[in-house]
C-alpha cells in the first residue's frame, strides 16, 4: 500500500509516469526503505494508467461488496424470545463483565495518568 500511496503522491506532484527512483525518493524522505521487487511490480502495473480512472474503477468494485452486520442484528433480536431464563442469563453475564472489567484495570502500577 505504501508503494501505491507514494506513486499517487508522485502523480499529484506532477509526474505523469513515475519511475522506481521517484517513488524510492518519496519513501526514503519518510524513512522507509523500498523493496525493489514490489516497487517494480507496482510501477509496471500502474504504468500508463490514469489514476483518476483507477480510483473510479476501485470505487465501483467497493460499492458492490457486501457490508454485513445483518446476522448480528438477527441473533440479538432472537435472544429475548427465549423466555424467563434469558433474563437470568443476561444478568449473570453482566455481573461477569463487571468483574472482568475491574480486573482488566489492573495495570501493575504503570498508569498513564498517575
TrEMBL record:
<dbReference type="GO" id="GO:0003735">
    <property type="term" value="F:structural constituent of ribosome"/>
</dbReference>
<feature type="region of interest" description="Disordered">
    <location>
        <begin position="62"/>
        <end position="114"/>
    </location>
</feature>
<dbReference type="InterPro" id="IPR027534">
    <property type="entry name" value="Ribosomal_P1/P2"/>
</dbReference>
<feature type="compositionally biased region" description="Low complexity">
    <location>
        <begin position="72"/>
        <end position="83"/>
    </location>
</feature>
<protein>
    <recommendedName>
        <fullName>Large ribosomal subunit protein P2</fullName>
    </recommendedName>
</protein>
<dbReference type="GO" id="GO:0022625">
    <property type="term" value="C:cytosolic large ribosomal subunit"/>
</dbReference>
<dbReference type="GO" id="GO:0002182">
    <property type="term" value="P:cytoplasmic translational elongation"/>
</dbReference>
<feature type="compositionally biased region" description="Basic and acidic residues">
    <location>
        <begin position="86"/>
        <end position="100"/>
    </location>
</feature>
<comment type="similarity">
    <text>Belongs to the eukaryotic ribosomal protein P1/P2 family.</text>
</comment>
<dbReference type="InterPro" id="IPR038716">
    <property type="entry name" value="P1/P2_N_sf"/>
</dbReference>
<keyword id="KW-0687">Ribonucleoprotein</keyword>
<dbReference type="InterPro" id="IPR044076">
    <property type="entry name" value="Ribosomal_P2"/>
</dbReference>
<keyword id="KW-0689">Ribosomal protein</keyword>
<comment type="function">
    <text>Plays an important role in the elongation step of protein synthesis.</text>
</comment>
<dbReference type="Pfam" id="PF00428">
    <property type="entry name" value="Ribosomal_60s"/>
</dbReference>
Amino acid at each position: 500500500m505504501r508503494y501505491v500511496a507514494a506513486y499517487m503522491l508522485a502523480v499529484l506532484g506532477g509526474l505523469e509516469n513515475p519511475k522506481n527512483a521517484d517513488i524510492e525518493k518519496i519513501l526514503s524522505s519518510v524513512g522507509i526503505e523500498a523493496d525493489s521487487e514490489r516497487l517494480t511490480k507496482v510501477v509496471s502495473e500502474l504504468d500508463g494508467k490514469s489514476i483518476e480512472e483507477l480510483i473510479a474503477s476501485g470505487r465501483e468494485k467497493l460499492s458492490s461488496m457486501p457490508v454485513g452486520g445483518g446476522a448480528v442484528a438477527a441473533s440479538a433480536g432472537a435472544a429475548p424470545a427465549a423466555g424467563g431464563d434469558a433474563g437470568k442469563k443476561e444478568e449473570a453475564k453482566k455481573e461477569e463483565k463487571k468483574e472482568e472489567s475491574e480486573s482488566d484495570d489492573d495495570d501493575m502500577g504503570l498508569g498513564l495518568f498517575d
